[in-house]
């Protein structure tokens, strides 16, 4: 045993392992082995991965489970939810987490090159699902929006699948268009058409929040993929102009903007600004250390959607500034780590994997930022959940699958750096 240990971990072995990683030929008689014991150049099994990232995700899921229960425990007192038990949302959220973990364990087994081959087809599937959900006989409507496909155990939201599909498709697109990325029409128009189609389908639901996230993912990947700077900023300007036009042409969107600018105005405080004012009251009551777990008053039928879009307000009221700050730090670290893994993949000449992972980082980080901004009154109200924490089956499911793919990319990065192959 000691001889094997000395052979594998000797300075010569490390020098040869580094040479193999850089593309050089090993010298001497010491075989290059990775941590799993496989000879260099042979396939390796899944062994090394970022355990801190995985445990952080599990911690956020656990916190979400506790806070969803706390935010929803009083809902059965409302006649609208009178038929539900006090643990209805807790048990369903726990079921969603269980299903998502199983799906994540399956997704992490799939090699990245398989995802790359499937990326265009997954995007087409996302478009079909977004079209199907608009059919009155198929899609489920809630509060004037038709965004869900009833699947028995859960209602699936195609827009969540579209976020992951866009990250994959945009990464695949940039790899295929790498030679013409400096030419405006050849590089941009296919992506512009794809984004326009998905935007029209999402706005027909309507789900402008999801469209903003998907557009940010697409443009972010184009920017990271190295498209011409002028083309990128022109695309951003066109998109911002389109958003402005949509707001200007829609009376209820304009009213939401006015309510955001002055939520305490009596005209809006009992209407479009109602959620925001009670969210701000919740944060104010939380102060530094919060009212204690379960001590929220705003969740007692004052703050609508407290267990979904406005879960952070309940966290702020019950856990205070300290709790909110810890959640923000956790998401900042998670997003940063995702980008580091993506950058490592690009440095290893795995452009699709790197851009896809960074797109997932834009999705998770951007949606978290928007949700926090909405809860704190820094951004207009949008129907976007807090990733990994808020109640919602399809959101948790797609978040977990996306993060499992990130872990898979990290695993393959480590295998390549140890002299193996993916």
TrEMBL record:
Its main location: membrane. Pfam families: FTSW_RODA_SPOVE. Pathway: Cell wall biogenesis; peptidoglycan biosynthesis. Its EC number is 2.4.99.28. It is found in: Cell inner membrane; Cell membrane. Keywords: Cell cycle, Cell division, Cell inner membrane, Cell membrane, Cell shape, Cell wall biogenesis/degradation, Glycosyltransferase, Membrane, Peptidoglycan synthesis, Transferase, Transmembrane, Transmembrane helix. Peptidoglycan polymerase that is essential for cell division. Belongs to the SEDS family. FtsW subfamily. This is Probable peptidoglycan glycosyltransferase FtsW. It comes from Pseudaquabacterium terrae.
